[in-house]
Amino acid sequence: xxxxxxxxxxxxxxxxxxxxxxxxxxxxxxxxxxxxxxxxxxxxxxxxxxxxxxxxxxxxxxxxxxxxxxxxxxxxxxxxxxxxxxxxxxxxxxxxxxxxxxxxxxxxxxxxxxxxxxxxxxxxxxxxxxxxxxxxxxxxxxxxxxxxxxxxxxxxxxxxxxxxxxxxx
Length: 169
What we know:
Blueprint: H1 2-85, H2 88-108, E1 111-113, E2 126-132, E3 141-146, E4 149-151, E5 154-157, E6 159-164
Parallel strand pairs: 2-6
Antiparallel strand pairs: 1-4, 3-6, 4-5
């Protein structure tokens, strides 16, 4: 019977020795896990800060872009004020110069008028406000009531147009 009691005792001691030997490895694994977890949390916080910083920077860039555009438009406002003070003969010429200045500023910012007269109606670029009989082919834009504009290749305002419905019989 002594052998029976000694055997479990030896097994317990062997398990205790193995646990003692595994303890440093377990501690090492726990430290590595804690280090990786801290790095993960730091990386998440850094990314969140980066996202917020980029959003603020985008707002700032947008504000300054609008400011530059507004400063250029103030030249147009100044010219309108001068034209209001001009005599009748100089008024028409002054208004034409203001229109040219304004068109130049818009063009510099990538804003162009949409050409539409005598072209086929395009619902992506034109808004038909009337359809009238005319000598022009059906579906052709015959008059532009309000000019449309594109910024780069995107329509920012559709042209309001009158479209031909062909000859009336």
